[in-house]
Every structure is written in structure tokens, then in C-alpha cells.
Amino acid sequence: MLHARLLAAAALACGAAAPALADFGDKNPITVTLTGSTPTGYPRAMAEGLNAVVRDAYPGSSISLKPSSPGGAVLLVSEGQADMTVTGTGTEIRLANEGKAPYEKPLKGKFSYVMMLFDSQLIHVLMTKAWADENGIKSWDDIAKKKPKMRLAINRIDNPQTTIGGPYEVMKAYGFTYDDVRKWGGSYVLGNSSFGLDAIVDGKADVFMNVRNLGDSLIKDIAGKRELRWIAADPEKMKTAAAAFDNTVAMVPRGAYPFMESDQPTINQWVAMLAGTHVSEEAVYKYVKAIAEAEERVRKIGGNIRGFSVAGMVRNPANLPYHPGAARYYREKGLIK
């Protein structure tokens, strides 16, 4: 009898304490390590901008940035070496869940979805006019048929969204692979988009496949130094390439760059924030809440995230489970059931 009363008292005490423990409406600080960005470039600027919003919302918070590649970031959050990544796409999610290269083992269940950041990361496919004229190339069909020797500026495998999830799929849609480029006598310039564009300027690359913002000023500047052309594509083949990792097709309008001769389809990738399942519900809830309640400030970070919206935060093309902290906030706001 005494044992039963003690159990009942303990249950009552826990029940009374639970609401207080679960109330995240305070301004208490949180500790979060963000990752996914390289030491320089737009992802870092975006990450630092988001972190600043959270620090202001929860004074005293320890919000830091740990540079890494997008592919490496998913591994870091899965292993608890970082908390959240700002560069997750359908590519990393699927490859990590399934344990396919560059991942050595399945990571399913070790990371979850936090929020959609933007849906406007466009794969750019450019070639120098000199190379195009020399080889009689206007389109991907021409490349597939003529198998020209090319020096291809493309990202490293540890950035799968701009290799496996984009350029590789475009090649596959036209019947050849990344490895075929070398078989045709070609070579690779491996690095991020800025590195690849530098190679174009320096005459070390003929073809560029990587992501840039639409209407990118650097590409416009380069076009004034070395004539460029966009590689024409078939909309249906580009649609096939995009669908492989839950992406869509966007049209790059003729006026986006001075060398664009017509509207052209390309892969449009979405980019999301992911969190390791080790991260507390409170930390993720507060991070999401801070970002949602500073919608206009987040847009002013600029670049791709200028189209950010609270309503769009819950978009989850990969159907990855929401982190409990994110799900809690979205339910409170009626954004998910």
C-alpha cells in the first residue's frame, strides 16, 4: 500500500513538473554548433546571418559555426560533432540514409529535418565560346555525340549536391558519365564554384558545372573577359535529371546573362537545415522560433534566402522526419498537423 502511494505521489510530482520543464517560452540561452559551409562564400554569410538572429533572440547563447563541406556536414551532425547543417539537400539526405558514396555506412535515423531555407539553387552549365566553336558544341546532345576532349570544372565528391545530385544526373540523362570525360581525353578541375570560375578565367577549364545565384555578377564579369555560352538542354532530359533527388526544373531566362541566346532549363535544387537527432528539443525549437519571428531580417541576409518565408519552412520534399523541436513549433503555429 505504501509502495503504491509512493508511486502515485511520484507520478503526480512528475506530472506537475512536466509543463514547467517543457515550457520553451523563456529567453534562456541555447548552445548550437552550425555547420555545412566552407570558410568563405555565400553559405557562410547565410549561416552567420541566421546565427546572429538567434543570438539576438536568446541573449547569451553560444551559437557557433564549424566550416565543412555540405556532404561532410551531414556526417558531422549524425555523429554529434555538430548540431545542425545549413546545406542539406535531397542528395545528401538520400545518400546518407542509404549509406552510398561518399558515405561509408547508412546514417538513417541519426539526423532529421528542421526547415526549408530556400528553393532556388541553380546548376549553371557553361562553356567557353572558344572551346564550343573548336568542337562544334551548342548542346548536351552535341557533347554526347561528339565526345569532345574537355577540361571540366566541377566540385569535389564531398559536395554531392553539386556533383552527384546535379551534374552527374545531367550527364546520365544524355547517356554518359563523369568517368567518360576522362575516357574522351579530358580532365577535371575540382573545387567550389569560385575555384571553377577562376579556372575558366585563367584558361585552365573549358566547361563549368556548379551552382551560382541566378544573374550572378561574377559570371557576368567573367563573360566580359572570356566569352561564354550556356550549354543548351532538352527540358524533358533535364526534368529526368532533376527528379533523381527530388529537385525541380527552372528556366534560366535569356536576359539573365549577356551570352544567353535563349531560355534554358536547368536543375533547381532546394536547400534545408537538418539537425542531428542528439540535439535537444529546446535548442531546435528556439532556433526555429527565432528565425520564424524574424522573417524580414532573414530575407535581408540576401542571396538565395531573400525568398525565405515562414510558410515555406515546413516544405519537406524528401519527407524526412521533422526534428521534435521543429515539429513542436510548426504544430503550435498550425503549419503541420
Explain what you see:
The longest helix has 21 residues, at 2-22. Strands 1, 2, 3, 4, 5, 6, 7, 8, 9 and 10 form a 10-stranded mixed beta sheet that branches. β1, α2 (42-57) and β2 form a beta-alpha-beta unit. α2 (42-57) crosses α12 (281-292) and α7 crosses α11. The protein folds into 2 domains: 26-118 and 270-332, Periplasmic binding protein-like II (D-Maltodextrin-Binding Protein, domain 2, 3-Layer(aba) Sandwich), CATH 3.40.190.10; 121-269, 3-Layer(aba) Sandwich (D-Maltodextrin-Binding Protein, domain 2), CATH 3.40.190. It is built from 14 helices and 10 strands. By secondary structure, it is an alpha/beta fold. It is 39% helix and 20% strand. The model is unreliable at 1-21 (pLDDT under 50).
Could you name the key traits of this structure?
337 residues; D-Maltodextrin-Binding Protein, domain 2; ten-stranded mixed β-sheet; alpha/beta; 20% strand
| Helical coverage, percent range | 25-40%
Beta-strand percent range: 15-25%
Question: Structural class of the helix and strand makeup?
Answer: alpha/beta
Compressed to H and E, one letter per element, the order equals HEHEHEHEHHEHHEHEHEHEEHHH
Q: Characterize the main sheet.
A: 10 strands, mixed
What is the level 1 CATH name of the largest domain? Alpha Beta
Mind sketching the topology for me?
Blueprint: H1 2-22, E1 31-35, H2 42-57, E2 62-66, H3 70-78, E3 84-88, H4 90-98, E4 111-128, H5 129-135, H6 140-146, E5 151-154, H7 167-173, H8 178-183, E6 187-190, H9 193-201, E7 207-212, H10 217-223, E8 228-230, H11 235-243, E9 248-252, E10 264-276, H12 281-292, H13 295-299, H14 324-332
